[in-house]
Specification:
- With 325 residues, the protein is of the alpha+beta class.
- Helix content is 30%, strand content 22%.
- The chain has a six-stranded mixed sheet with strand order 6-8-5-9-7-10, with helices on both faces. A four-stranded mixed sheet has the order 1-4-2-3, covered by helices on one side.
- It is globular.
- 47% of the residues are buried.
- The structure holds magnesium ion.
């Protein structure tokens, strides 16, 4: 159980990963120089997102399974946010040679089970292993479209603004980790089973470590006529600002739907889907109305008809120094 990747070597580590990664859905899956995917239509949706030990996860808080799950989930969310169905992940894993093989195996389990739970039919179809002092998981996700993609730029004045998924839950989990699971020097401390946590706290912690973005709702929103869409990765106000700016509208958010969720406006990492729909259309199941798009005004986003306070979300460069504590 204590084997490291340095002791086993690339070939055996890869064999162990492939044994756990799940069944390929591709014409040619892992094992050759590249995968071959059969795709309907003429357009592929592609995105990449990297998790770096330090800014994006801490090994004291996240298991290998958690890291694999999250790396899959955040990429699947970006595919879904285009209105597309995820079909394949490519995973580049760089790690120190003293990384336990058990950690890597758990990471493969997390990748597989996140795909199975969030985007059935999507699987890891290839990747790369490399050595580095910093553990990094870089995932490329591919997807296909059943209709035109839904961009950030399509919102029009009068559209309903709606959200599918959690807002602020993962951020409460992160706050809990920073507040209660660090030592006197600020270093992360593992969350043990006997930690005195309420059910709500356990849920928030689980959502921070293993987010559940509503992947199937991306294509559903597209089919229902969504005019604009994106996933909320950095905070609702910050991401709504991006959508509003791209669309040339003002997004007016009502806080009433978020009563009892203190970090709903600023918390990222739930990867909820923020979408706009024509005013007359029925919202697809799973979406709830949170506001409306208006003619562009002095502020791209209003919260309860007022300009929001602060930056409203997470910036990986500006905020990481502060978070490092
Ligand atoms: Mg995104």
């Amino acid at each position: 159980m204590d084997d490291t990747v340095g002791q086993l070597g690339e070939r055996e580590v890869l064999r162990r990963i492939l044994a756990r990664i799940g069944r390929s859905a591709a014409e040619v899956g892992p094992g050759d120089d590249a995968a071959v995917l059969a795709v309907p239509g003429e357009r592929i949706v592609a995105t990449t997102d990297t998790l770096v030990h330090g800014p994006d996860f801490r090994l004291a808080w996240s298991s290998g399974y958690d890291v694999g799950w999250k790396a899959a989930a955040v990429n699947l969310a970006d595919i879904a946010a285009m209105g597309a169905r995820p079909t394949a992940l490519l995973v580049a894993l760089t790690m120190p040679d003293d990384t336990p093989v058990a950690f890597v195996e758990a990471l493969a389990d997390g990748l597989r089970e996140a795909c199975a739970a969030l985007a059935p039919g999507c699987a890891v179809e290839g990747g790369d292993l490399a050595a580095s002092d910093t553990l990094t998981v870089a995932v490329t996700a591919l997807g296909v479209l059943d209709q035109d993609p839904v961009l950030r730029s399509g919102a029009r004045a009068g559209d309903v603004v709606a959200l599918a998924g959690d807002a602020g839950v993962a951020a409460r989990g992160l706050q809990l980790l920073f507040d209660r699971f660090r030592d006197a020097d600020g270093a992360p401390v593992a969350v043990t089973d006997d930690a005195a946590l309420t059910d709500a706290e356990r849920t928030a912690l689980a959502r921070q470590l293993r987010p559940h973005p509503p992947i199937a709702h991306g294509p559903l929103a597209a089919a229902a006529g969504a005019t604009a869409m994106m996933d909320v990765s950095d905070g609702l106000v910050l991401d709504a600002t991006r959508l509003a700016t791209a669309s040339g509208v003002t997004v007016s958010i009502d806080t009433a739907p978020f009563a009892g969720e203190p970090l709903a406006l600023t918390g990222g990492e739930d990867h909820a889907l923020l979408a706009t729909f024509p005013a007359e259309s029925a919202l697809p199941d799973g979406f709830r109305r949170i506001g409306e798009a208006r003619m562009a005004g002095a502020h791209p986003v209003l919260v309860d008809r007022e300009p929001p306070v602060g930056r409203g979300g997470w910036d990986p460069y500006a905020d990481w120094d502060a978070a490092r504590g």
